[in-house]
Amino acid sequence: MRAKAYRLRIALGSNAQTFGNPSYSEDGLHTDHICDFLQDSTFVASYEFGNSSIGLETKTLDYNIRFRAYVATWAALQGAKKQGCFVELGVGKAVVSGTIAKYFHLKGIALPMFYLFDTFQGIPIAKLQESELGNARRLNILHYQNDYWEESKQKFQGFPEVHLVKGILPDSLSLVNLEFVSFLHVDLNNAKSEIESAKVLWDKVVPGGIVLLDDYAFGEEYRAQKHAWDRFASTKRIEILTLPTGQGLILKDTK
């Protein structure tokens, strides 16, 4: 029986060195699997838009989140098959939401009303657990030192379906009448605010709707978020699928 030859990988903390030519190696994910989406011209153009202008400052360090953006775009496409709006909690520099909006437009697919909730000033630290403080402060320094409200509005000028909502969650949810939600993307880097927002929105998520958690299993620095979501999931008798990107995927029961 012929033995399969595997490339050697040596894990060094959060980094990994790969011998060979992996098909994807960024954002903590290294794989030899087929990643044809990286050659999909529509996705490539959409991601370039999402990561443009007010994209991550670490872009200069060649840091990308293409696989996460691809997963989010797929999830949004599934959500679009249901009645309801799209909601993103924690927009950051709109890499993911920008990719989704641009992809829908380039494909000629009707983009549902898309509500983007954020402080547009970085991660508020008042509600953070002790274990979350260090990471939040690091992210604020890396990505969110300046107010990005005006830049965010400018980025979505050509997207009448996209509505930016400025404020601190979950309180800012009351600023919009959200009746039905078919796709919910959560990226607050804040366990308490994520769960408080989820409690408000869960019953609004339609059967078959998609909930995508950006940081669910991304790393130990996000452990508080995973624990919080696992507890929430147990109260709803649902399962969260851990993805190799570190995201968590919830498909709301159709029953």
Distance between the termini: 48 Å
Note the total helix count: 7
- The neighbouring-strand order within the major sheet is 7-6-5-8-9-11-10
Unreliable runs: 1-16, 55-61
CATH third-tier fold name of the largest domain: Rossmann fold
CATH class of the largest domain: Alpha Beta
CATH superfamily of the largest domain: Vaccinia Virus protein VP39
Assembly status: single chain
Summing up helix and strand content along with how strands pair, one would put the structural category as alpha/beta
**Overall CATH architecture of the largest domain:** 3-Layer(aba) Sandwich
Compute the CA-based radius of gyration: 18 Å
Q: Largest beta sheet, briefly?
A: 7 strands, mixed
| Morphology | globular
Instruction: Give the beta-strand count.
Output: 11
Q: Helicity range of the residues?
A: 25-40%
Instruction: Spell out the helices and strands N to C.
Output: EEEEHHEHEHHEEHEHEE
